[in-house]
Amino acid sequence: MGRVLSVNAREFEEWMQRSLAACEAALDGFVPIDAPVGLGVAMRYAVLDGGKRLRPLLVLATCEAVDGDREAAMRAACAVELIHAYSLVHDDMPCMDDDVLRRGKPTVHVQFGEAQAMLAGDAMQALAFDVLTPDSGVAPALQARLCALLARSAGHAGMAGGQAIDLASVGLSLDEATLRDMHRRKTGVLLQASVMMGAACAETPARATAALAEYGAALGLAFQVVDDILDVTQDSEVLGKTAGKDQDANKPTYVSLMGLEPARALAQELRCQAQQALADSGLPNTAWLSMLADMVVERDN
């Protein structure tokens, strides 16, 4: 396997903290507190001061790898996090997964009520596309490309479709191909889109674009496989959400399908695929992307 640029963990941590701080500041500016009758408060509760921010980090790391437009990338990073946050708010509601804990605190519908949670999710989804379409600073063609990538990953062919399959699969025995398709749609496509949005911020060569798409696909599935593993190996305090939820709800997962150790082996295999894709990209500076792939597989929450 080819080698990607190696940097030490301290440099990566410093880059990550700078990126997270910049993203948090941008989100703080984009998400209004003065929306009517407390809606802004619920929105800010849902998206600020919590979460791993993996999707924004993927956007920003890919933009750096292709030497892209930094302003466009930061807007894309915030937009994809808004979409992710809205999806969590809706997924946690009683009509779907009925969860009470998210990011170590009560879910939005528990804190603010079901109607306000639904509206907060709706508003964040709309705000994501508002953030991607400023009056100036980002070329119209790039705005359109970023909006298309995000919309396609979040809609019926991606995240929403995956959640529909997930809800319809409770109590069923799925084969690996069907489970993979569900996870690809529900989780993987938005993670892959984060990478592709970063790549869209530059005139990225076709070879590198294809390799980055392979990287995003492998990392997206690895993320969900690890999530399935953590659901049965960690407690709620570490996860920041209800542990054992999938098992209790009789949902199909990689652990229930193939067992714990084979699932762990699959996560490692997917990490190798992601790293190989980076090596095949021809890009000289994929260090942050490489270390993000390691972080996804090695995380404990």
UniProtKB/TrEMBL annotation:
Source organism superkingdom: Bacteria
Listed Pfam families: polyprenyl_synt (PF00348)
Swiss-Prot/TrEMBL keywords: Isoprene biosynthesis, Magnesium, Metal-binding, Transferase
Classification via InterPro entries: Isoprenoid_synthase_dom_sf (IPR008949), Polyprenyl_synt (IPR000092), Polyprenyl_synt_CS (IPR033749), Prenyl_diphosphate_synthase (IPR053378)
Cofactor(s) it depends on: Mg(2+)
Record-stated family: Belongs to the FPP/GGPP synthase family.
Stated name of the protein: Polyprenyl synthetase family protein
